[in-house]
Amino acid sequence: MDTALAQLREQLHTELRRYERMAVAYSGGVDSAYLAWEAYQVLGDKMVAVIADSPSLPRTHLAFAMKFAEDNNIPLRVVQTSEMDRAEYVRNDGARCFHCKDELFLTMERMLSETGITTIAYGRNRDDSGDFRPGQRAAANHHAVAPLADASLGKQEIRALAQHFGLEVWDRPASACLSSRLEYGRPVTAEALRQVEEAEEALLALGFRQLRVRHHGELARVEIERGELAKALSLDMLSQITAAVKAAGFTYVTLDTEGYRSGSMNALLSIDSLLKANHAA
Q1: Which residue is catalytic, options 74, 162, 177, 265?
Q2: How many angstroms separate the CA atoms of 208 and 229, rounded?
């Protein structure tokens, strides 16, 4: 490990030692997984990772997250969240992510009231600061801490450290909840989430690594990492993509020639919507 990475890791350990006990909001993605792993190295059984078994979390992601925790001896609690009971979440405007994270942190607080743990940590890193992320507003409202960001760790350093310690999550593709695939204004329903999950799993089975199936009602817009687009453009593969996505319940399938890009649905939000979402209360 080079000196710069070692210093960043020591900064992270310094941040973690500030807390006697900690619960880490955990999803199985590289940020929260690395944070949970390091919290366990520092705090041992005085920490717990908490994952929400939500309809918007793909079943394969839940299974991976549970296995990662088990393989690394990380204490884990699985909680049920009820964001689907919130009208503000279901209507799917620019504040959807706020209401999802607010529900998660509320659920964690209720659970932790029985344990004596008062510190909730989540996986925000240094690179997240400038993004449109209303979930950070929810975290602030619940006084959740962000040790990775506080230690000035960015995504590249997190992946490098995870790789150094042999954590299989190190090169796991970035992912967001299934609800983020739905166009804004389209209500979040269990059926819509099922369609997206089924379509994406089928496309991953075709050998693609980074993709999204964006839900526009009867139309599915498929985003595939630009480096993999050439593979998608053969007539045979296009037929397989179309069949796989239609089998999930879509009538029309289109391949987005811009390829995969994080947060592409945000282009549909007005500036006013963005401002309201960032100041959701």
Answers
A1: 177
A2: 9
